[in-house]
From TrEMBL:
<feature type="transmembrane region" description="Helical">
    <location>
        <begin position="60"/>
        <end position="84"/>
    </location>
</feature>
<feature type="transmembrane region" description="Helical">
    <location>
        <begin position="29"/>
        <end position="48"/>
    </location>
</feature>
<keyword id="KW-0812">Transmembrane</keyword>
<keyword id="KW-1133">Transmembrane helix</keyword>
<keyword id="KW-0472">Membrane</keyword>
<protein>
    <submittedName>
        <fullName>Uncharacterized protein</fullName>
    </submittedName>
</protein>
Length: 90
């Protein structure tokens, strides 16, 4: 065999230019959906990695999402305590 052919891989991978699409992580609407509908406060790093938000917006939305998540946790706690009192009559 030829030495030059032995060094080459039988399968060559080539990168293909994909059309310029905005990734979901860089979309403002997708970040809001993830923050408010899916992850709550766990999505804040995604907010801070997104270049489409200014520094002031990042701080504002981080505070809002933190308060929103705290309210949801409190409501879940209140429902659990109400259920407990209904079941055990305490």
């Amino acid at each position: 065999m030829n030495a030059a052919k032995d060094d080459q891989s039988p399968i060559e991978a080539k990168l293909v230019d994909s059309p310029k699409k905005e990734s979901v992580a860089k979309s403002r609407g997708a970040v809001f959906a993830i923050l408010f509908l899916v992850t709550g406060v766990l999505g804040i790093p995604l907010l801070w990695m997104n270049d489409k938000f200014s520094h002031a917006e990042r701080i504002f939305w981080s505070i809002i999402v933190t308060l929103y998540t705290a309210a949801l946790i409190y409501m879940a706690y209140a429902v659990c305590m109400w259920s407990y009192h209904q079941i055990f009559g305490a």
